[in-house]
Specification:
The protein has 508 residues and is of the alpha/beta class. It is built from 14 helices and 19 strands. 30% of the residues lie in helices and 21% in strands. Bound molecules: N-(aminocarbonyl)-beta-alanine and zinc ion (ZN) (2 copies).
Length: 508
């Protein structure tokens, strides 16, 4: 199957150009930059008539005129929770299962311009890690509509687990996820040993950083005093609870030299600590999520506040703008100054990227969603008691369109959105050879984006199974109109065209 996408504006993390993109059997074979005649026609077509100059792009099964459209690499969402069950999920039990499975979750992803997701393996106690990986892969293989990867959860640590981490790495997975809170948290010592181990086997640790003792003390106090509305979810895990854990995680990473990836970073003080460590040269990465950019903790005062319950919770305005500033500017240090901190005083004036070209960037490295929604009836179990509300919100269909809309409004550059949503995730998680860029040799994971299309997010036009969305009513300027997964058209103008089982494991 050969496809020609012509006359589009191709945008990669490092720049843009008007170009024709040639796709052959699922792979990009040519990006004919500037191959244009004075009359506007393309060299590509001129070559069609010259039989003595064979070209791989002479015959096309499909020719798409992308004039006026942006041609972008598909987004890589490295943080989703599909089919995540915990507790007793029988009808009478008190457990929960996240609403989207690998089919509905990746269907929604495809319709939001995502071409790769990365989810998690949660091994049972005493379970062999590679067996747990294979089990999760067989569930995902049958259902995913886009390519996928998995991170390995580590919720117990002993010599067996440390040894099996090398087997997991040999099976292709180089990212291990630990928690600093919840029942399955690691102790500080276990966390440190995990960091030491990933250094040995050349892998990385992803961490959910919230200080367990501090938040449990807050929860106990609120439960004892009957303060259980959604606002107290935020108050039980405020800025300092997250910042304390982030600083501890960084300290342990520095002591061991292990590569650390902090998931869903949501507070200014934690971000500041990340930047400091990055500037010192430590291999530390930070991800934030669109919910922390678009909302503040004020959502927990709304009547539907329980729908926004996730951990870490949305924070105050200072954190929101610190995250935005880092996302917009990359806190570049071309002149040695620390860049964005001064902007906290002008939170309502987001500025375009002011950074000198090629300056190193510090701060937020990736955007991902932590997509983990629960149906209304499940969220309602905690209507009057936040401790009974399952944690998690939706976003897999929203992240890329939301960020691209912000770029379209001039808040940040399209290149920076591509860097955060696809180029950097591809590099950090070891798939840059195939993903994260529109370039010859890469998989044809391509999004066509219409910058003129007006779109209002509603549960009705989303493709997940979830019966509400925290993004309801959000107006976007521009929207994806096509998504290709390895050259296969899986989304077009609001309609899902993919199929379950198409997605491949990215580390095979
Ligand atoms: O509240 C959240 N984020 N739920 C999903 C699991 C996690 O902690 O990432
Ligand atoms: Zn988490
Ligand atoms: Zn998560």
């Amino acid at each position: 199957m050969n496809i020609l996408i012509k006359n589009g504006t191709v945008i990669n993390a490092d720049g843009r150009c008007i170009a024709d993109v040639v796709v052959k059997d699922g792979v990009i074979t040519e990006v004919c930059q500037g191959a244009r005649q004075g009359d506007g026609s393309s060299v590509l077509f001129q070559r069609e008539n010259k039989t003595d100059e064979p070209s791989p792009c002479l015959e096309f099964d499909e020719v798409v005129d992308a004039s006026g459209l942006l041609v972008l690499p598909g987004s890589i969402d490295v943080h989703t929770h599909f089919e995540l069950s915990f507790g007793d999920t029988s009808p009478t039990g008190d457990g929960f299962s996240s609403a989207d499975d690998f089919f509905t979750g990746t269907r929604a992803a495809a319709c939001g311009g995502v071409t790769t997701i990365m989810d998690f393996v949660t091994p049972e106690k005493n379970e062999n890690l590679v067996e747990a990986l294979e089990k999760r892969k067989s569930v995902a293989d049958a259902k995913t509509c886009i390519d996928y990867g998995l991170h390995m959860g580590i919720s117990e640590l002993n010599d067996r687990v440390l040894e099996e981490m090398a087997d997991v790495k040999a099976a292709g997975v180089s990212s291990f996820k630990v928690f600093m809170t919840y029942a399955f948290k690691l102790t500080d010592d276990e966390f440190k040993r995990t960091l030491t181990r990933v250094k040995e086997i050349d892998a990385l640790v992803m961490v959910h950083a919230e200080d367990h003792e501090a938040l449990e003390a807050n929860r106990a106090e609120f439960i004892a005093t009957g303060k259980t509305d959604a606002w107290h979810h935020y108050l039980s895990r405020p800025e300092e609870v997250e910042a304390k854990a982030v600083k501890k995680a960084i300290k342990l990473a520095k002591e061991t030299g292990g590569t650390l990836y902090i998931v869903h970073l949501a507070c200014a003080e934690g971000l500041e600590a990340v930047i400091e460590a990055q500037q010192e040269g430590y291999p530390i990465y930070a991800e934030t999520c669109p919910q922390y950019l678009n909302f503040t903790c004020d959502v927990y005062k709304r009547p539907d506040g329980r729908n926004f319950i996730c951990s870490p919770p949305m924070k105050g305005k200072e954190s929101q703008y610190a995250l935005w500033a880092s996302v917009c500017q990359g806190a570049r240090q071309g002149d040695g100054s620390s860049g964005f901190f001064s902007r906290w005083s002008k939170p309502d004036e987001p500025s375009p990227c002011l950074a000198p070209d090629n300056a190193p960037t510090f701060g937020i490295n990736t955007l991902a969603t932590d997509h983990c929604p629960f149906q209304t009836y499940e969220k309602d179990r905690g209507k009057d008691d936040f401790t009974k509300t399952p944690n998690g919100v939706m976003g897999v269909e929203n992240l890329y369109p939301y960020m691209l809309s912000q770029a379209n409004k001039g808040i940040l550059s399209f290149e920076r959105v591509v860097e955060l949503c696809t180029a950097n995730p591809a590099k950090i998680f070891g798939i840059a050879e195939k993903k994260g860029e529109i370039a010859p040799g890469k998989d044809a994971d391509i999004v066509l984006y219409d910058p003129t299309k007006e779109f209002t997010i509603s549960q009705k036009n989303m493709h997940s199974t979830i019966d509400y969305t925290i993004w309801e009513g959000t107006k976007l300027k521009g929207y994806p109109v096509r998504t290709y997964s390895r050259g296969n058209l899986i989304y077009k103008n609001g309609e899902f065209l993919g199929e379950s089982g198409w997605g491949r494991f990215i580390y095979d």
